[in-house]
Amino acid sequence: MQQEQQHHSPPAVSLRPFSLSESDVAAVMTWASDPRVTRFQRRGPFTSKDDARRYIADHILPHPWYRAICVGGRRVVGSITVKPAGAERHRASIGYRLAYDYWGRGIATAALGAAVSAVSEEWPDLERLEAVADVENPASQRVLEKAGFRREGVLRKYVMLKGESRDVVMYSLLATDNKL
Amino acid sequence: MDQDQEETQIITLRRFELSDVDDYMVWASDDRVTAFCRWDSYTNKEDLLRYMQEVVLPHPWYRAICLDGQPIGALSVELGVGCDRCKGELGYVLAAGHWGKGYATAAVKTVVASIFKEVEGLERVEALVLVENKGSQRVLEKAGFKREGVLRKTMVLKGRTVDLVMFSFISTDPLVD
């Protein structure tokens, strides 16, 4: 399922906000309608463009930090979100999802790096970024490890996923970890 | 072993009443107790009465830890709302004069023996403990909780960010006798 990275140079990944344009709606549908991608997401799979349109309007646009993952400056291949844990913004959690055809090329790792840099600047009080990966999702665990996140432990039955409680691995990246 | 059993029998949990305020004040005003808590020691009874009225009494899972029927501490489980109905967070405090006698362990054992039957959909009770709070970590271990890991800088406690140890008890875990 996963291909080894075939490119020698890291992919040119950039992040930008979403809009309600038809192309953004179509992009969201690419991964949000794919059960291989939505398997470990709370929502989906979507069955119609209206689902995606409504999701952009009701969830993406009002979200504190939701970005489209772009490759080569144009093509939207996934999304990445950072959600502050409270009003103080000392802690936030990251989530991401990528269209299946773009797995295994280092894109998610690059997007994570870009997101970490961006929110670290925007939220100066940020000390901890965390992310969870399902115990049955080793690809996502590898992405987080490659992005420099540290594995803290397995939290049993920590999240509900499509009506079922799941064990997840908790990862964190501290502002102090990121020191150059 | 016999001594543990005797102490387990005399620790009971019940709902609070406003008339418990004087007993509640004993631990709620004690800096030794509140040092590890997110809240500051209470300095007057009116503030505590208001807290009991607004938070404690209407709470779905807030209990007095009683020794021979008299409150010596408090225990609460914050139930997950919305997406994560499967989990609840346990917190407890005990008056300092009753530390080191197994009372908190007995109270926590009572909770995990009953709460999964009482709360529909609950599968996980978790507790977060300061890395330095070895006493509380021992309470949870003796009550059968599993230590899952350290969550680094996960909470701001009285102006400083702290590392917390995550413990959990799953509905299918064995009860410790």
TrEMBL record, chain A:
Single annotated GO MF: acyltransferase activity, transferring groups other than amino-acyl groups
Protein name as it appears in the record: N-acetyltransferase domain-containing protein
Residues annotated as signal peptide: none
InterPro entries: Acyl_CoA_acyltransferase, GNAT_dom
Domain N-acetyltransferase as annotated: residue spans: 13-175
UniProtKB/TrEMBL annotation, chain B:
GO molecular function, a single term: acyltransferase activity, transferring groups other than amino-acyl groups
One Pfam family in the UniProt entry: Acetyltransf_3
PROSITE patterns according to UniProt: GNAT
Gene3D superfamilies assigned: 3.40.630.30
Domain N-acetyltransferase: 11-163
InterPro entries the UniProt entry points to: Acyl_CoA_acyltransferase, GNAT_dom
Protein name: N-acetyltransferase domain-containing protein
Provenance organism: Canna indica (Indian-shot)
